[in-house]
Inverse folding.
């Protein structure tokens, strides 16, 4: 360990994800066990720049493991992208005698941490908190399981009305650059098709699949659409399909930010607790400027460079399975 770490700061940044509070709870209580002082930074990097830090004791994180969102609030900071903003953030950390920071967030959060640690000698450890599950170095990110469960629950309810009215529903879920949510939602909801950024499924292929279903007297269908797929948003896709195949009464549902909210699932609570605990113990053991992840059930520390730059690939077996089960 490069230095004796006695005072740490923890913050949440970027988009909120169910389970962030559970991770925060684990960080505070693990640090307290090791006789560390913990400070919570409000509003992510914005609060770091403004010096908006407050002491956190064990009792301050009681009764939050089940809560969605983040009690520390979150924000995206344009000021932190400037050298002047990062200098102000550094001075704030020095004013509170902070020895190390734990950042709970996603790609943008870790990119900021990487740049900051290259300029200033304060070690960071990251905890992957993003519903997209798109960070390399961990099998799952905090919030992903809750988001998928929320999307599946919505798809199940839509299925009821689709079945009652001979309808084709296009259900749009989050995922600008990755199809993890969409693919798992499609499998879990028994959808007829899924459109994700990682595959090149065309409108023609989708229409052909729908025609096959109609020939089998299939009276309704669900198509799960990741917002970042190559064919456009769900509304555009629905219009194109309607023009080519008018068999079904076509509707669109965009689940949107419902996927970010709600109480975290048991899986997300346990994952967040493990990652929060291991981040503090990692700092004690000398880890720095890395992301704490879970790979094959084991804790793994991945350098920020690698976690940010390397693409996390979908399991092609899952993609193939989704296609077969949808037939």
């Amino acid at each position: 360990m490069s230095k004796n770490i006695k005072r740490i700061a923890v913050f949440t940044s970027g988009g909120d994800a169910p389970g962030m509070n559970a991770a925060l709870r684990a960080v505070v209580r693990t640090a307290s066990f090791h006789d560390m002082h913990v400070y919570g930074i409000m509003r992510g990097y914005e609060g770091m720049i403004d010096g908006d830090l407050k002491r956190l004791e064990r009792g301050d994180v009681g009764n939050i493991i089940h809560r969605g969102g983040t009690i520390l609030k979150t924000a995206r900071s344009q000021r932190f992208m400037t050298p002047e903003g990062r200098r102000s953030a550094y001075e704030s950390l020095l004013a509170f005698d902070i020895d190390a920071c734990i950042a709970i967030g996603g790609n943008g959060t870790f990119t900021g941490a990487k740049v900051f640690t290259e300029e200033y000698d304060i070690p960071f450890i990251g905890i992957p908190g993003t519903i997209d599950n798109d960070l390399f170095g961990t099998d799952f990110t905090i919030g992903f399981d809750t988001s998928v469960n929320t999307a599946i629950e919505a798809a199940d309810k839509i299925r009821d009305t689709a079945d009652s009215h001979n309808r084709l529903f296009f259900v749009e879920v989050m995922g600008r650059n990755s199809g993890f949510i969409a693919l798992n939602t499609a499998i879990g909801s028994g959808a007829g098709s899924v459109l994700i950024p990682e595959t090149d499924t065309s409108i023609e292929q989708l229409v052909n699949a729908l025609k096959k279903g109609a020939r089998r007297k299939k009276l309704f269908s669900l198509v799960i659409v990741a917002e970042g797929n190559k064919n456009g948003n769900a509304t555009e896709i629905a219009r194109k399909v309607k023009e080519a195949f008018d068999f079904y009464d076509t509707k669109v549902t965009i689940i949107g930010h419902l996927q970010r909210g709600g109480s975290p699932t048991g899986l997300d609570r346990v994952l967040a607790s493990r990652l929060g605990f291991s981040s503090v113990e990692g700092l004690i053991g000398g880890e720095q400027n890395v992301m704490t992840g879970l790979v094959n059930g084991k804790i793994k520390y991945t350098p920020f460079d690698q976690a940010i730059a390397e693409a996390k690939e979908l399991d092609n077996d899952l993609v193939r399975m989704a296609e077969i089960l949808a037939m």
